[in-house]
Amino acid sequence: MNQFKTVALLGLLSALLITASYWLIGGTSGALVGVGIAAVMNLGSWFYSDKIALAAYRARPIEPGQVPQLYDMVKRLSDRAEIPTPSVYIIPGQAANAFATGRDPDHAAVAVTEGIMEALSADELEAVIAHELSHIINRDTLTQAVAATIAGAISLLAQVMSYTLWFGGSDDDGPNPLAMLATIVLAPMAATVIQLGISRTREFAADEGSARLTGNPRALARALKRLEAIARNVPMAGNPSFEPLLIMNALPKEKFMSNLFSTHPSTDDRVENLLRIETQLQGNHQPTSFATR
Fold this sequence. Notes:
Radius of gyration: 20 Å
Distance between the termini: 7 Å
Shape: elongated
């Protein structure tokens, strides 16, 4: 079901870009420009989104012998999930967070902060790593990069066309000014809501992936509550564009805000879902099967 929602939202986001291009640039040629913009930006995100995200958080790579407890944990869980061991990075600072990036399991990286290694117990950190590996397995890292790229293209297009509307006047043969104005105002807002909806959907799926990979949903539930509490005092610094990658909002939002304008579901909802999964796994008497959604 989560996969269906994600595909539907990505399709809606792409349609929004083409529609915005149609109204802002004008006609079929505008729609074709929208398709071209999406293709170029998606190609860039395919090859460079991981490098940009890691650089944005000043993540440094580690070798197997440098932080063995972390590297061995990533390798053990990767072997269990039957994927190549991703590159491992550490982010300096006391903020407690983590993220995964990369276009597929063969070109992936997991990054954790120094703060999260100090804050969590071994089983909690293992659950967080399993969550990030689930993002890699489900190719959420690429999905989120594509969603962010398309949403960014819509916002950029609306901004450029707003200058045209206000300072360039209108042409009788050009787009309808009222339609342009409505698109300039509404398209970026709609794109942001859709992008955040994709991010929230993928977080639930990754939580379930972690629960099934470790067989310990409660460890991730404890970790999420602890990470939320830490984030209120030590928010994660960095470009807000990359916040959907993080396991926890850089600065937790109030619950009513998480329903629409948050990159993540509320922590309470995630914990409730994990406890429900725990009940399912106990009923099956064998939480060893790892399945993606």
